[in-house]
Amino acid sequence: MTIAVDFDGTIVEHRYPEIGEEIPLAIHTLLQLQADHHVLILWTVRRGRLLQEAIDYCRRRGLEFYAVNANYPGEPAADLATDDDGQKAEVSPSCRKITADVYIDDRSLGGLPDWGIIYELIHGHHSLAGYYRHLYTHKPASKPSLWKRLLGGK
Ligand SMILES: [Mg+2]
Q1: What is the pTM of this model?
Q2: What is the percent of the chain where pLDDT is above 70?
Q3: For the domain 2-123, what is the CATH code?
Q4: Which residues are found with C-beta within 5 Å of the ion, ligand 1?
């Protein structure tokens, strides 16, 4: 899975342009997700020196991203994108959305879950609603597989 992850307010407490304290378990969880073969992309509004400080902060803790504000390493900072009609349209590089399966961002609706929950959601392929349903009702977070249903499992 490709995971785009924000920096300020997500990996560290929001102190932009300074770097806040690490949010508990953020780096540890991201390293575990990499060990689980997920691809991590740093996706942040930081640019230039401030971006490099964020990259260095993570690097000193053993975390290297596959790409930074790009879909793959070395991707040119595009200022043109193809719109739905196949036409080229100008886009602001600072507002560019990365192609990912999951986005981890403190500004997402509902806020940032704690990193232990983030890991469980990704590892277990749960939605946040499914995770809480599972937690509070002890019902399966997702429908059982076809094979389990055919073989009489619950
Ligand atoms: Mg943020």
Answers
A1: 0.78
A2: 79
A3: 3.40.50.1000
A4: 6, 8-9, 106
